[in-house]
Design brief:
This protein is an alpha/beta fold. The chain has one domain. The chain is 11% helix and 25% strand. The chain has 2 helices and 9 strands.
Amino acid sequence: MSHNPEKVISPFFDLLVCPKCLEKGYVSNNFFICSVCNQKFKIIDGVPIFIDNSREYVDKRENTNPTNPYPQKVIDLAVKNPNALILDFGAGCPRKEHLFNNILRLDAFHYQNTCCFN
């Protein structure tokens, strides 16, 4: 897998804050770095990994089988409100046709379409 920190920059980067002190950060050399406490979080394939212990990291980027399919209500919400931001905690690996640009996908596992890992 390639490491592409630019993948996360748009459109969700402005929403990211340091989980330690809740301050804004910046990207440098494949790390999200807090501007206040200088805590560093690795970026893997464009996804910031907000965990303390690298042994807790679970890489499921090779998984191509959809998990946690969106119910029709969520699909309708995403389609009818393209400018709204929808947070999906426990996103899993949605079907490719359900990768809406206005859904921020957060999961405890790093799937190929995860936006943020925590």
